[in-house]
């Protein structure tokens, strides 16, 4: 049976590739009886859903709404566009 | 239209319908693109560079813009490619990542492989968190604390949605390396969010 450390490693792997069925069963059993790993799995799924579904939906507020191009960068880009247009 | 003639305002081509003239692009889209890039690259200067590259590439490609998608979506598409290019270049310039993954995991697990600190319980509706400005600010800060390679792997795979194969190509890492990078990133990121958002 995997330790918690192994469980988290397998969990990470499972996000990027399909694990063999017996591994998946081991993980299912482990997470049934292990509270910390159960929580970790939920956290990881929350994060995955947040980034895959919520962030691209446009509903996420801007992390720093006041963040903007510096005046120097703004002017440099404008100038480059003028030169080439 | 002669293919020999340079694209400039002395040889005006019919502007693609729906596309504002390039002189206005920085004002209309510059800041949105910049915020998108900073979130992923964690550095202002790098973000400014890719935004510049994006606008210049868009200028070259402007006659190919089709009104099927919005201008912003089109620009973001170009920006995503420029971000991936940037991360690839960054990887090529930096030495291989020498830090040992094992040390880092000892922080989280004891010699028997059990958690040293139990992950917290994240309650509430996801939207309670995801709709708050402050959550994404904490997220951004947590992302900024990751080692660069781990952060870039995470950004490409889980923010940009690149396939594992694409991420491996961009970062010149093996499948085993990539898995280690992503695992470290996830452990640290979740721990950081745990401490700085969900339990405070």
If you average the pLDDT of chain A, what whole number results? 91
Instruction: Report helical residue fraction of chain B.
Output: 55-70%
Biggest sheet features of chain A: none
Strand segment tally of chain B: 0
Average pLDDT reading of chain B: 86
What's the helix count of chain A? 4
- The count of DSSP E runs of length 2 or more, i.e. the number of strands of chain A, is 0
**Strand content of the residues of chain A, in percent?**
under 5%
Which structural class best describes the helix and strand composition of chain B?
Answer: mainly alpha
Order of helices and strands of chain B: HHHHHHHHH
| Biggest protein-protein contact in the assembly | A-B, 49 and 55 residues
**Unreliable stretches of chain B, pLDDT < 50, 5 or more residues?**
1-6
Rg of chain A: 22 Å
Q: What structural category characterises the helix and strand content of chain A? A: mainly alpha
Descriptive account of the structure:
Chain A is mostly helical and 85 residues long. Helices cover 71% and strands 0% of the residues of chain A. In chain A, helix 1 (4-16) runs parallel beside helix 3 and helix 2 (21-33) packs across helix 3. At the A-B interface, helix 1, helix 3 and helix 4 of A face helix 1, helix 2, helix 6, helix 7 and helix 9 of B.
């Amino acid at each position: 049976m995997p330790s918690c450390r192994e469980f988290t490693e397998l969990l990470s792997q499972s996000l990027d590739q399909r694990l063999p069925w017996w591994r998946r069963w081991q993980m299912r059993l482990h997470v049934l009886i292990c509270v910390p790993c159960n929580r970790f799995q939920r956290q990881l799924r929350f994060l995955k859903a947040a980034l895959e579904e919520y962030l691209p939906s446009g509903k996420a507020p801007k992390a720093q709404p006041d963040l903007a191009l510096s005046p120097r960068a703004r002017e440099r880009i404008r100038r480059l566009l003028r030169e080439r247009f | 239209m002669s293919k020999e003639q340079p694209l400039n305002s002395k040889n005006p081509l019919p502007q693609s319908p729906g596309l504002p003239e390039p002189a206005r692009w920085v004002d209309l889209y510059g800041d949105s693109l910049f915020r998108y890039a900073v979130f992923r690259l964690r550095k202002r200067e790098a973000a400014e560079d890719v935004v510049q590259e994006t606008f210049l590439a868009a200028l070259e490609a402007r006659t190919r813009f089709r009104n099927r998608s919005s201008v912003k979506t089109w620009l973001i598409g170009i920006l995503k490619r420029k971000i991936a290019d940037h991360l690839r270049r960054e990887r090529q310039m930096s030495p291989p990542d020498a830090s040992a993954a094992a040390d880092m995991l000892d922080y989280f697990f004891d010699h028997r492989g059990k958690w040293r600190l139990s992950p917290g319980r994240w309650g509430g509706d996801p939207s309670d968190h995801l709709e708050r400005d402050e959550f994404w600010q904490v997220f951004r800060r947590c992302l900024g604390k990751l080692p660069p390679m781990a952060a870039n792997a995470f950004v490409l795979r889980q923010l940009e949605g690149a396939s594992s194969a694409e991420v491996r190509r961009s970062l010149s890492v093996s499948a085993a390396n990539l898995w280690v990078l992503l695992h470290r990133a996830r452990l640290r990121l979740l721990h950081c969010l745990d401490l700085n958002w969900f339990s405070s």
